[in-house]
Specification:
The protein is an alpha+beta fold. The chain contains 8 helices and 15 strands. A 6-stranded mixed sheet has the order 3-4-2-1-15-14, covered by helices on one side. It has a 5-stranded mixed sheet with strand order 5-8-9-10-13, covered by helices on one side. Strand 6 and strand 7 form a beta hairpin.
């Protein structure tokens, strides 16, 4: 079984309000890429990926007039994908939803959020109380993109829990001057770490109940990635993975995260590639993860980053290599499990 996560940059711009695919010569939001080029590139990547389930990060919008499910269903139909079923969770206001696109012949899936307004931790569409700045006053933290919690029933009868997440530390928009930018950046960083703590508490609750768990998505953070990391001691990735010695909960595992944590100055795997206009060069980063719980490690897991330059098969397949570069600024990450 193959499970994957894929952040598809501004997927929403490829659909009209009725969820119909705009595979035409108009410009997509990606630089110098038409909607037709991006749509076809995404389809090539998803076809090559051939996953039983794909956690789509930055999925098409759900709002008063738009529907994530309608758009993704139309996309799957247009390109004859086998992942024809869609499940979504709590909608957000960012035009970047989280959704699972999956093969209904392999599994059945439902949105199954845990917690409530008075539980600890609360449900992901609620508010998490934490003292962010050590001033003895609780701050109310919310998710701009609430994680997607799923119960998955495989055709074999096995049940899994999945959580799709997109954590993001906002840029210091509106701040004037170096000091104001620094203050806002630190505040935004604190909020992201609080969201990671909230997510980790939910993970611990699932593991305490004996659930097999997969946590995946774009965490926008990683060892050595942020200039404020030394100020706070740990990255969001380290918090979500967990530390059995410190917080009492079993660790999740992702080999790419582990590799990055072992040495922060050696070569590291990467899952995203951004062009820095001011410096006229590309920056690569490890942002996307598929983390699994302990029992799932007994099922011969095999991870893969579908990187157009680092993965030999992607590199030697020109159509796939170019599609990966055209479709998004992130590349898929998959794990194969013998379930």
């Amino acid at each position: 079984m193959r499970i994957a996560t894929y952040n598809i940059e501004w997927f929403d711009s490829l659909f009209d309000n009725k969820g119909r695919l705009l595979a035409d010569g108009g410009w997509s939001v990606r630089y110098d890429v038409t909607r037709k080029q991006q749509a076809e590139a995404i389809a090539i990547v998803l076809t090559a990926l051939d996953a039983d389930a794909v956690m789509v990060i930055e999925a098409p919008d759900t709002s008063r007039r738009r529907s994530t499910t309608r758009a993704l269903s139309h996309f799957a139909e247009a390109f004859d994908l086998r992942t024809t079923a869609v499940v979504t969770g709590f909608a957000n206001d960012t035009q970047q939803e989280i959704a699972l696109l999956y093969d209904p012949a392999v599994m059945s899936v439902r949105h199954d959020p845990a917690g409530g307004p008075d539980s600890a931790p609360p449900r992901f569409d609620g508010a998490f109380d934490i003292d962010l700045d050590i001033d003895a006053t609780l701050d109310h933290v919310t998710f701009s993109k609430p994680p997607l919690e799923l119960t998955v029933a495989l055709q074999s009868g096995r049940r899994l829990r999945m959580i799709g997440a997109h954590l993001k530390s906002k840029a210091p928009h509106g701040a004037q001057g170096h000091d104001a930018v620094m203050r806002m950046s630190i505040a935004n960083r604190r909020k992201q770490l609080a969201q990671a703590i909230w997510l980790r508490q939910r993970i611990e609750a699932h593991l305490a109940m004996g659930d097999d768990l997969i946590v995946m998505g774009d965490l926008n953070d990683g060892p050595g990635l942020d200039e404020y990391e030394n100020l706070f001691g740990r990255s969001s990735v380290e918090i979500i993975l967990g530390d059995g010695d410190d917080d009492g909960g079993p660790r999740l595992f992702d080999p790419h995260a582990e590799q990055a944590l072992i040495s922060r100055i050696s070569a590291q795997p990467t899952t995203a590639r951004f062009f820095l206009t001011a410096e006229k060069r590309y920056l690569q980063a490890l942002l996307d993860y598929v983390m699994i719980s302990v029992r799932l490690r007994e099922h011969d897991p095999r991870w893969r980053i579908w990187h157009p330059f680092d993965d030999p098969v992607c590199w030697r397949t020109p159509e796939l290599r170019e599609a990966l570069l055209t479709a998004s600024d992130h590349f898929p990450v998959s794990v194969d499990l013998d379930l």
